[in-house]
């Protein structure tokens, strides 16, 4: 382990992590970004709701632009994996596969992992806009289309109702282990959402941008777009190791400046709250990085 004590280590290089890197670099802080190359944003074929891109922007293109901006100001972004995070002597020891680092503060921008549906060639379906994950990001793009929403619980069903904002042809494909609550079933019907109870035995993605499901009835059901509403798993293992508190949804509890319940440990982006939006992740990271700078700068 090096004797150097960094001002900060940022874990993750998605929109939140790279925003933190841009700010910290321009604050002239000593820091390192550690990332494993698995940003969820890289899956986005083209986002049309991110401010500043009226014609949309692809996830990989956006990440590339942000990385170049951070590196322009001297940010060091290393590929690797953080294996353990330990508070120690008013700072942190950050253990990685390449060795250990020490830092006064840490910003976790570790994001979430999607609970993916069992769809063959899922990545290709996402790239072609046939399979979508975020109704807030992409709801506008399904106006007038037939939409299937795959889900297993009340939260998923509410996403199907949300999609009715954009389409009159919405079907909730219930894949949960138990039956839907009667009140929820009534709510879906009142909203004009069809309900299919099925384990989805077979799925194909057809050439002409149509996703087909065979529900064992002899006739496949076809949808223009399918939403996966199976939720996400927050990447909070490092924070839990360090003693950070989680909310009821399994995400990190933070204060007004994105600091967790562990002093000096910050978090930003999808790992914090359930909106899962690039713009909010960037804003949270800017707040966190600014608080890190103010925390460490000399008091005159």
DSSP strand content: 25-35%
| Silhouette | elongated
* Percent helix range: 25-40%
Which spans have pLDDT < 50 for at least 5 consecutive residues?
none
What's the alpha carbon Rg, rounded to whole Å?
Answer: 21 Å
Distance between the termini: 32 Å
Oligomer: single chain
Q: So how many helices?
A: 8
Query: How do the helices and strands follow one another from N- to C-terminus?
Result: EHEHEEEEEHEHEHEHEEEEEEHEH
- In total, the number of strands is 17
Class from secondary-structure proportions: alpha/beta
Provide mean pLDDT, rounded. Answer: 91
Task: Please characterize this protein's 3D structure.
With 300 residues, the chain is of the alpha/beta class. The chain has 8 helices and 17 strands. The strands form 4 sheets. Strands 1, 2, 3, 4, 5, 6 and 17 form a 7-stranded mixed beta sheet that branches. α1 packs parallel to α2.
Features:
300 residues, alpha/beta, 27% helix, 7-stranded mixed β-sheet
Topology:
Layout: E1 5-11, H1 15-26, E2 31-35, H2 59-72, E3 77-79, E4 82-88, E5 91-96, E6 99-108, E7 112-114, H3 122-127, E8 131-132, H4 135-138, E9 146-151, H5 154-163, E10 169-174, H6 182-190, E11 194-197, E12 202-205, E13 211-214, E14 221-223, E15 225-228, E16 232-234, H7 237-242, E17 265-267, H8 278-296
Parallel strand pairs: 1-2, 1-6, 2-3, 6-17, 8-15, 9-10, 9-15, 10-11
Antiparallel strand pairs: 4-5, 5-6, 7-16, 12-13, 13-14
Q: Would you summarize the structure shown here?
A:
With 300 residues, this protein is an alpha/beta fold. The chain has 8 helices and 17 strands.
């Amino acid at each position: 382990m090096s004797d150097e004590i960094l001002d900060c280590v940022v874990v993750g290089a998605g929109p939140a992590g790279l925003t933190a890197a841009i700010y910290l670099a321009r604050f002239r802080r000593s820091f390192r970004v550690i990332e494993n190359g698995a940003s969820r944003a890289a899956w986005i074929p083209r986002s049309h709701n991110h401010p500043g891109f009226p014609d949309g922007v692809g996830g990989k293109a956006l990440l590339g632009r942000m990385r170049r901006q951070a590196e322009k100001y001297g940010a060091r972004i290393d590929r690797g994996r953080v294996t353990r995070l330990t508070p120690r002597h008013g700072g942190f020891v950050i253990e990685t596969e390449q060795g250990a680092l020490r830092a006064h503060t840490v910003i976790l921008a570790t994001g979430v992992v999607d609970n993916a549906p069992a769809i063959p060639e899922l990545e290709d379906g996402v790239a072609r806009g046939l399979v979508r994950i975020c109704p807030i990001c992409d709801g506008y793009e399904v106006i007038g289309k037939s939409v299937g929403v795959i889900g297993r619980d009340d939260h998923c069903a509410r996403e199907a109702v949300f999609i009715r904002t954009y389409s009159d042809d919405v079907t909730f494909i219930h894949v949960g282990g138990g039956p839907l609550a009667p009140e929820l079933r009534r709510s879906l019907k009142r909203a004009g959402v069809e309900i299919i109870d099925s384990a989805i035995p077979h799925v194909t993605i057809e050439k002409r941008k149509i996703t087909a499901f065979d529900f064992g009835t002899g006739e496949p059901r076809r949808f223009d777009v399918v939403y996966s509403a199976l939720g996400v798993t927050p990447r909070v293992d490092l924070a839990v190791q360090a003693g950070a508190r989680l909310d009821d949804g399994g995400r990190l509890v933070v204060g007004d400046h994105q600091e967790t319940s562990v002093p000096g440990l910050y978090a930003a982006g999808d790992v914090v709250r359930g909106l899962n939006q690039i713009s909010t992740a960037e804003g949270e990271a800017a707040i966190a990085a600014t608080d890190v700078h103010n925390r460490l700068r000399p008091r005159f």
